[in-house]
Amino acid sequence: MTESAQTTFSPGKGAGATVGVALLGLGTVGAEVMRLLEERAEEFSARVGGPIEVRGVAVSDLAKPREGVSKDLLTDDALSLVKRDDIDLVIEVIGGIDYPRKVVLEALKAGKSVVTANKALVAAHADELAAAADESNVDLFFEAAVAAAIPVVGPLRRSLAGDKVDAVMGIVNGTTNFILDAMYNRGASYDTMLAEATELGYAEADPTADVDGLDAASKAAILASLAFHTRVNSEDVHTEGIRQISVEDINAAKAANSTIKLLAICERLKSEDGSESVSARVYPALIPTSHPLASVSESYNAVFVEAESAGRLMFYGNGAGGGPTASAVLGDVVAVARNIVLGGRGPGENTYASLPIAPFGEIETCYHVDMEVDDRVGVLAEVANAFSEKGVSLKTVRQQGLDSGARLVVITHRAKEADLHDTVEALKNLDAVTNIRSVIRMEG
């Protein structure tokens, strides 16, 4: 935080003053935001203390028909729009990183508060954006950037500001949850469910950001930064997707009384000497069917928070779509507009803790290792010895006969990621092990 942001009070325009808004983007979310601002104008005015008026809408294609939106409002020059004197608040729902970064920075430097739903932008450039907001003494809010309508950013910023958050774990991508949930309940393959998710509109034509975990990683970076008062960027998040999850993996999860979910996991870690570090990671993991996150179905999201005083909290709801995302955007709009009218500023970024990012190899969890082995005397001892030599303790072992050889499923006690990696490499070199079918972490 800059010195000016700490000492300067924003006086406000005064009760009854109009808040001029620039809306950047008129896609699914932008169109819904526009519709609701018009339909509920009186309600928003009462909540804010003055009218909210959209004075310009930036779009990429002026020739495209925009039903219900006056042509006089439209422009393809977002940079000029956000710097206009009659604009107080900018709502950014364009998506992407490079161009929105340029426009949002210009808006903040011009003294305009910003509400954005852009998780990739916030995860990649939070430091720069927060510094610009501090310098201009304006608000930068982004509730919609994580899990749409589910209120998670606000509670971490405000409700839990007096507590110490130890962990945040959640399902924050609806596309992957839809696919994995259907694979579990219907026995369908990954490819089949990806095609259905695309047809239903849950997945984009290019699903890379979703199925490779990139979308969830951006959200994990934001959650970890807020929870631990430490700057965590997207590149700090170890990221794996769900492309490799097979029907066999799902069946193995069922046999272990578990299900598979793509999890965003943020943890505060404490070493033996008392020093702390932070871990943020995204990967598919087995969680027990008794865990609250196991029951999160279809495209829904949920975030599980553990705090020192508050204990365990869970936030659940629809984490995607025009309506839910617009709801979160407008919640921020009301809060920011009220500050513009009545004065003051909402809580901003605070990364005072500056905890180090823990190396991924030092992270500890349990593992589910599924392999094919020779069906002969002594194989189990050889396999167990490979785990033991790397310091990985076995919790359960299950063997199943195959037409040729046997299937061995091992569940470990908590172990370091690096040790498990070395164990798998050692197993690959054993003559007794003919195939490593899968290695899946276990959480919860």
Detail the topology: elements first, then pairings.
Elements: H1 3-7, E1 19-24, H2 28-39, H3 41-48, E2 52-58, E3 74-75, H4 78-82, E4 89-92, H5 98-109, E5 113-116, H6 119-136, E6 140-141, H7 153-159, E7 165-171, H8 174-186, H9 190-200, H10 208-211, H11 214-228, E8 238-239, H12 247-255, E9 258-270, E10 276-288, E11 300-307, E12 311-318, H13 322-342, E13 364-373, H14 379-389, E14 394-401, E15 406-412, E16 415-416, H15 417-428, E17 433-442
What does it look like?
- The protein is an alpha/beta fold.
- The protein is built from 15 helices and 17 strands.
- Helix 8 packs across helix 9 and helix 14 packs antiparallel against helix 15.
- The longest helix has 21 residues.
